[in-house]
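note to self — DONT lose this again. spent like an hour looking for the file last time. sequence + predicted structure for the chain T wanted, 226 res
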Amino acid sequence: MDKLIPAFIIIGIIILGFIMKRIELSDIIKRVEFTNSYRHKFIELINGFMSRNCFNQQLYYELTSDVKSMQYELGSDGIFAYVTDNLRGFSTSNYQLLVNFLPELRNAINERDNGIIMNRINQSAQDCDDMFIRHLGTLKEAEKSIRKNLVNPFSCFSDGIKFIVSLPILLLHWFGFISDETTRRAKHNWIIKLLNIIVTLVGFIGGLMSIVMGWNEFWQIICSIF
C-alpha cells in the first residue's frame, strides 16, 4: 500500500499538469481570436483612411479603448528596441508602436495633402500589421507546442510542478495584490524557471524511488538525511 501513495501523487501531478495545459491552450486560442479581431478592425480603419479619405470614428474608438490590452498582449512583438524620429526630433527606447500610432493617425486627418506625413502613416501602419502577424506567429507556435505535449506525461508532470511552485504568485494575483503584468514577469523569471527544473527533477526521481522502495522506507531515508 505504501508504494501506491507516491504513484497516486505522481499521477495527480500529471493530471494537474494536463489540466493546466488545457487551460493554457484555451487562453492562447482566446488571445489569437482577440489579436485577429483587433487586426481586422485596424486594417479596416487604415484602408478607409488611405483609400477613401474617410475616418471611421467608431472603429477608432473601439481600437483606442482596447489599445492598452492589445499592446500588453503583443509584449515584445509590439515594441521597438530603439527608435529615432527625425520628423519630431526625439529618440527613445522600448517604443510602443501601436499606442503611439493611433493618436498620430487621428492627428493626420487634416494633413492628407502632406506627402511626408502620409508616407509616415503608411509606413507605421505597415509596421503595425507586421507586428500583428509576428505575434500571431508566436501564438501559433505556442499553441502547436502545447498540443504536441498535451498527452506527454513527462511534460504534464513538469507543468503540474510548475503550477505548484508558482502557486504563491498566483494567489497574490487572484487576491489582487499584484497585476497581470507582474504575475507574467514573475512566472518567467529565471529564478522561478530554475526552481521549476530543480523541483521537477527531484520530485520525479524521488517519486520513482519511493515507488520502487516503498513510501515508508523512502521517508525514513529522507528523515535520516535531514
